[in-house]
Write a structure and sequence with these properties.
Blueprint: H1 3-19, H2 24-27, H3 34-41, H4 49-59, H5 63-67, H6 78-90, H7 93-106
Amino acid sequence: MNETQANNIRHNLWIFRLRRKIPRHIFVRDIMSVQAYREIEYGHEAISPDMLKKFIEKYDLKRKHLTAAPNFASLLDHPTRKLIEYQRVAISSTQRKHLMHFLRDFLPRTY
């Protein structure tokens, strides 16, 4: 697979996981470690053909859908759009910085 396909697969797996509200540790169970998957999801490593095959089999995915250009708009339901709008428009840069620190430091990690 080429670099474009690898990036599309990475993004499409992430979109699939989020749309179905599957935490990483559940999504990768019996396939790979959470840390290894996180490296793939963040774009630091490419997914191997063997791992891709396991995801396709486990979740009954189509390879052509995974290699297609990702549709990020599918994640933008009304509450998400309102949250993004509020975060970008309604709060000051200082409030935004404090919110980012809160999210980073106080929310539980799923890995």
